[in-house]
Design a protein that fits this description.
The structure is a single chain. This protein is of the alpha/beta class and 396 residues long. It is 30% helix and 21% strand. It has eleven helices and 16 strands. The chain has helices at residues 19-27, 68-77, 82-93, 109-117, 138-147, 162-175, 192-200, 262-275, 293-306, 317-320, 327-341, and strands at 4-13, 16-17, 34-35, 46-48, 98-103, 153-156, 181-188, 221-222, 224-232, 241-249, 284-287, 312-315, 343-344, 366-367, 372-379, 383-390. Strands 1, 2, 5, 6, 7, 9, 10, 11, 12, 15 and 16 form an eleven-stranded mixed β-sheet that branches. Strand 1 and strand 2 (16-17) form a beta hairpin. Helix 2 (68-77) runs parallel beside helix 5. It comes from Luteibacter pinisoli.
Amino acid sequence: MSPLAVRAFTATSALGRGLEAHAAAIAGSRGGLAPNDFSTTALPCWIGRVAGVEDEPLPGEYAQWECRNNRLAWLTLRQDGFIDAVRAARERYGASRVAVLLGTSTASIGATEEGYRRLENGAMPDDLQRPAIHTPHSLAGFVADVFDLEGPCLTVATACSSSAKVFANAERMIRLGLIDAAIVGGVDTLCDSVLFGFNSLELVSGEPCRPFDADRNGISIGEAGGFALIERAVEGDTSPLFIGYGEASDAHHMSTPHPEGLGAELALRDALARAGIEAGDVDYINLHGTASQKNDEVEAALVARSFPATTRASSTKGFTGHTLGAAGILEATLTLLAMRDGVVPANLGARTPDPLCGPQMAWQSEQADLRIALSNSFGFGGNNACLAFARQGASA
């Protein structure tokens, strides 16, 4: 694949707003998880909540899109020069040549939940009779409206791999000449459906999650938003590069990964091949690492058998929680920051390493020259994605 430039990127999570807040948290190994204060009835767990979302409504011109998910999107778009970068791309290429390709797991379902809690004579209350928010496409529609874009507008909802798989969609559309640039990313916010749904599967931990710990007992759910602008790289470019991706579906079980990680391995091998690199070229892997029993078991074994000891690997979900459909873009952002700053994130939360983990695991933060990195995103139903990134001059 021809490398694409990551022209701008940004993220918001429990670690804070914008790139520097995330970089500082990673450098200081400071997590953002806190006891659950969000659900409408008590659920003893820890969450990664973004502070202040409820205090910042959308501007009046976007009133039809008003909901927590789009509020978080609006906060995130207005950071790190992202709006200016998109407007410049629109000016260069035209409104019909910039795509909006976004991933989400639950979209604005929190607003729909609220409507059902406040039914008026069996109907949605008047203030929530806004059809645009009661659909999985709410997020992408809102972002396209903000930038007045007319190009392809696509929502990907493949659970936890959603906002990783949009990178693949963007590459294909650019390569085929359908577009010249794409806004990729995703947003997922906390809601009862997510918290109690995962709890019903006995996947939610009563304490901060501990990825790859021998005694891990479940996930911590978080919320996040993130966006990147990608386009063809040009000579003299200094932007980080998106150099490859892999996708696979193992279709083993609705919520449990294949016991031998076959789909995950297919996605990994596909990403390496498309990027034109070998496993030994990879300096860092941001692991999916949810702290669930099966996911970490499968991923730890995959990394241990596939990469040399010099490759560093860690999960950042101990910092942010599992942000579901936003995990792909959030962890891609953290991967790009790790490469920029030469900081391998700690595998926060783990106290006793799982014996399946190999020497690749970085249990504490490390300084390293990170030229090429991967980011794994493995969703329910075996929706697996792996993204490959490189610094300028480092790709094969």
